[in-house]
Design a protein that fits this description.
This protein is 69% helix and 0% strand. By secondary structure, the chain is an all-alpha fold. The N and C termini lie far apart (42 Å). This is Aquaporin.
């Protein structure tokens, strides 16, 4: 069964956008810092371990509230297949803005 991400009743859609923004920002920043813009001589295993850690931490922190998406395509596909499109914009706006902001900050 494909289960779509939904914002829980304890949280507003705006709160969901902010959570998705923060988690995606943290993920993209970590990817840039450890894999894309690596310092010469840094351990090669640091990147994958850091990325796995941040994904796990993000899921534990936001899973009960928004499902911890961090991926608009996965959220949209599950919502379309299940027919539950309520609050779908949360999973587009938050991750896209969060990823873009991390790229702008780290890209400087």
């Amino acid at each position: 069964a494909i289960v779509p991400h939904t914002v829980t009743y304890e949280m507003t859609a705006t709160g969901g956008v902010l959570m998705e923004f923060a988690t995606t920002y943290a993920l993209v920043y970590t990817v840039y810092a450890t894999m894309v813009d690596r310092k010469p001589g840094s351990p090669s295993l640091l990147g994958p371990i850091s990325i796995g850690f941040i994904v796990g931490a993000n899921m534990l922190a936001t899973g009960p509230f928004t499902g911890g998406s961090m991926n608009p395509a996965r959220s949209f596909g599950a919502a379309v297949v299940s027919g539950k499109l309520k609050d779908g914009w949360v999973y587009w706006v938050g991750p896209i803005c969060g990823g873009g902001a991390a790229g702008l900050v780290k890209g400087k």
